[in-house]
Amino acid sequence: MPQLRAIYQKMHFNNAAGTNTIGGFGITHDGTDPSLQAFLSRPVFVNIRSNATIKNNIAAFVQCFDTGTAPAVGYSRTVTAANLTSLSVSNDWTLLESQAALTNIDLVVKGTINGTTHGLVYQPTSGNYRPDTTNLTAFTRSQLAAKIAAGDTLTVMGVPPGAGIRMGIDRNLDGVLDGDVPPPSLQIAQAPGSIVLNWPYSAAGFALQTTPALSTSTWSNVLDPLEIIGSQNFVTNSQPASAQFYRLKLQ
Predict the structure, then answer these.
(1) Is 154 helix (H, G, I), strand (E, B) or coil?
(2) From CA 120, how far away is CA 110, in angstroms rounded?
(3) Which of 161, 154, 4 is nearest to 73 (CA)?
(4) CB within 8 A of 169, min separation 6: which ones?
(5) Which of 104, 110, 127, 144 is in the most buried spot, having the most CB atoms within 10 Å?
(6) Which phi-psi region, left, alpha or beta, contains residue 115 (left: φ > 0; alpha: ψ -120 to 50)?
(7) In degrees to the nearest 10, what's the CA dihedral of 38, 43, 47, 52?
(8) What pTM did the predictor assign?
């Protein structure tokens, strides 16, 4: 019946006064019933509405249909020098690699290589990790482990089959690896009482940051409202009382 289709999208709804819900939109067309138990308690369900066991069994049944997505999709472990030798981390990494070899998932890695942000995708046939730039060669797992031991941090994560290239090394699938895309240019112009900064809207993942002096390593994100006009991002800031420097930083 329609109310029980795609039930995973409707669960965890709270329709109490003054509440906000982001986990579901309830049962029936207007979300009147926040749960399957409430829905199955309606008068129309004459034979089961008073039987909590049957209602719980039906609720469990309609939520257990296989979606075709492997359990390893979305599973991730962040590996640092502190937990690199942990047996549970090692076992999970091995498990994700084996699931990728079975084509149940694609396996991507995000983090830093030699202190620089990079993405990688696991290649089961060769048993190594392809980076997001042609300036680096593929890494073996042991080579990545050595980078982590030296201070880098990497997160390994299972993603849906076929999504590895996009999520790991080429976010817009334009054939140019993410690490080879030229950095966006930041334009700054002065206006009466303010300064206007703009950069390409296509520069996904970059944040505008500021610092009062280049001699310090402290940079903070600019929190002023962002306006999108055409193909550019625009931020208008009040004229600072002293020197202010800006940059785009890949997050």
Answers:
(1) strand
(2) 6
(3) 161
(4) 108, 119, 120, 121, 130, 131, 132, 177, 178, 179
(5) 144
(6) left
(7) 20
(8) 0.66
